[in-house]
């Protein structure tokens, strides 16, 4: 079962803010149902004051849009509200999705104030999908971004997603685990995610397993007999150093070695993990098990992991739960969905939202995003938001400038330009095939490697440049003057 098939089993068309339908009814009644509108999804701030975020959720967005329809029960619900016209209800009943949609591919590093999803189509259709576009991309991008921070803090050590039971609902657990894998986790404790998305399911035992047997040693031996080729024992149910590790060593010697197996590891889930891991490492090494890994879990995040490693903790992998799956330190990815343009007589008319808060002023027009790379180093220099039909000529010098502080300018040469937004729907028909989840994960890792280290650091990261092309800046500046 592919991820799109999984979502196709559900009709989520009614998962929308009520005002989307009241506005849509108004558009219909004012003869605007066929008015072509352009909407951008973008975000304003990177979670945890990071240097970049990660795009995720496009595959689920495709599944939602492919299944966009209203059934008889939906129509009867609207009719019962006594505020919607019969003509509008008939429109919904016979809805035929006709929008064009573009999105930045999953796994791509993304930055504030650039469109990451663009929707063009009849205003009613483009409006009523707002909530699901935001919900789908916001959630998975948030978790993929958090997971990648934790993975980078682990400095090459494996990170497992362990948060299913603490997630906000079952879809938070399932799709969060998918996003965490894109962000770099090696697998998940959530079984259904392995079945439906082919994200490896991982896990050992709970404390209840140890408690159920007459003794800790009995529980360890029973587990080793069942799973001799993947034996990881939880050693902190009673006392890590006095009983847990000694009983694990005894089990390895009596149950695994005689059968030709080597232990995979032990897990520590409580206590002073830095100290306990160092002492456990000595005990395992002295017993002849230097290849036995140590797994740490218990309320971990990127900062705790970094501190543990700085303290010399002897940990080979991490199981991270609630602080990953909920992005506990900053649990909101603030993506927004704003009107950018309409069409009149086939001509694109740019629209702008003005605010006293500069960061809330939108960028008008039908747009594309280019990422410019230094040809010599392969590193990303800047993103440039352009009009959709603009071409950045790599054979010529190109000037970038700050869209607010326009005197900050730089001429680029010897660079390559890559379009980031790719079309996923053409006139309502899906025209994009989502890559395999492992491809997305590898792509994400490779794309992050194109960012300078200054952008990826945790504290005070370098602010990556997201500039406007001169033609787009001119349109925005003109509209701002008109709306003074």
Concise overview:
With 484 residues, this protein is of the alpha/beta class. 38% of the residues lie in helices and 20% in strands. The chain has two domains: 3-143 and 331-482, nicotinate phosphoribosyltransferase, CATH 3.20.140; 147-325, Alpha-Beta Barrel (TIM Barrel), CATH 3.20.20.
The average pLDDT score comes to 96
CATH superfamily of the largest domain: nicotinate phosphoribosyltransferase
β-sheet strand percentage: 15-25%
Radius of gyration: 26 Å
Q: How would you describe the overall organization of this protein?
A:
The structure is a single chain. The protein has helices at residues 3-8, 18-29, 58-66, 72-80, 86-93, 123-128, 130-153, 170-182, 191-197, 207-212, 216-226, 240-256, 273-286, 302-310, 322-325, 437-448, 453-456, 470-482, and strands at residues 36-43, 53-54, 100-103, 109-110, 117-122, 158-161, 187-188, 232-234, 265-268, 293-296, 317-320, 335-344, 347-350, 367-374, 380-387, 398-401, 409-412, 415-419, 422-426, 429-430, 465-468. It has 18 helices and 21 strands. Helix 4 (72-80) runs antiparallel to helix 5, helix 7 packs across helix 8 (170-182) and helix 12 packs parallel to helix 13. A hairpin with a 2-residue loop joins strand 12 (335-344) and strand 13. It is of the alpha/beta class. Helix content is 38%, strand content 20%. It folds into 2 domains: 3-143 and 331-482, nicotinate phosphoribosyltransferase (Alpha-Beta Barrel), CATH 3.20.140; 147-325, TIM Barrel. The strands form 5 sheets. Strands 13-12-1-5-3-19-20 form a 7-stranded antiparallel sheet. A 6-stranded parallel sheet has the order 7-6-11-10-9-8.
């Amino acid at each position: 079962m592919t991820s799109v098939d999984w979502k196709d089993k559900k009709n989520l068309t009614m998962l929308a803010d009520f005002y989307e339908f009241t506005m849509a009814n108004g558009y219909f009644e004012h003869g605007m149902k066929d008015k072509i509108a352009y909407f951008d999804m973008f975000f304003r701030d990177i979670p945890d004051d990071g240097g970049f975020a990660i795009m995720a959720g496009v595959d689920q967005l495709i599944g939602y849009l492919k299944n966009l329809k209203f059934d008889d029960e939906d129509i009867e619900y609207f009719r019962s509200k006594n505020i919607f016209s019969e003509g509008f209800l008939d429109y919904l009943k016979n809805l035929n999705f006709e929008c064009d949609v573009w999105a930045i591919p999953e796994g791509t590093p993304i930055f504030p104030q650039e469109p990451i999803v663009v929707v063009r189509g009849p205003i009613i259709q483009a409006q009523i999908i707002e909530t699901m576009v935001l919900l789908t991309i916001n959630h998975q991008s948030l978790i993929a971004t958090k997971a990648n921070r934790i993975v980078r803090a682990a400095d090459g050590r494996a990170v497992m997603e362990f948060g299913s039971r603490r997630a906000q609902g079952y879809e938070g657990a399932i799709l969060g685990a998918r996003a965490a894998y894109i962000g770099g986790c090696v697998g998940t404790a959530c079984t259904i995610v392995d079945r439906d998305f082919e994200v490896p399911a991982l896990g050992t035992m709970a404390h209840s397993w140890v408690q159920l047997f007459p003794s800790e040693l009995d529980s360890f031996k029973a587990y080793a007999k069942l799973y001799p080729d993947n034996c990881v024992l939880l050693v902190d149910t009673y006392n890590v150093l006095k009983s847990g590790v000694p009983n694990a060593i005894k089990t390895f010697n009596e149950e695994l070695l005689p059968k030709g197996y080597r232990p995979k590891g032990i897990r520590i889930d409580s206590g002073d993990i830095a100290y306990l891991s160092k002492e456990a490492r000595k005990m395992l090494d002295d017993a002849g098990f230097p290849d036995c890994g140590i797994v740490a879990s218990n309320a971990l995040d990127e900062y705790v992991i970094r501190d543990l490693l700085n303290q010399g903790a002897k940990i080979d992998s991490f199981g991270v739960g609630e602080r990953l799956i909920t992005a506990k330190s900053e649990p909101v990815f603030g993506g927004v969905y704003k009107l950018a343009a309409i069409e009149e007589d086939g001509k694109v008319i740019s629209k702008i939202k003005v605010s006293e808060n500069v960061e809330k002023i939108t960028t008008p027009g039908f747009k594309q995003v280019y990422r410019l790379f230094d040809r010599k180093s392969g590193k990303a220099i800047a993103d440039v938001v352009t009009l959709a039909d603009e071409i950045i000529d790599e054979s010529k010098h190109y000037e970038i400038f700050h869209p607010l502080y326009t005197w900050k300018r730089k001429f680029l040469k010897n660079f390559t330009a890559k379009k980031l937004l790719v079309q996923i729907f053409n006139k309502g028909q899906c025209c994009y095939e989502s890559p395999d989840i492992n491809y997305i994960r590898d792509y994400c890792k490779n794309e992050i490697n194109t960012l300078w280290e200054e952008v990826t650091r945790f504290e005070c990261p370098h602010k990556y440049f997201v500039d406007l092309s001169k033609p787009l800046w001119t349109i925005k500046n003109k509209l701002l003057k008109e709306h003074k």
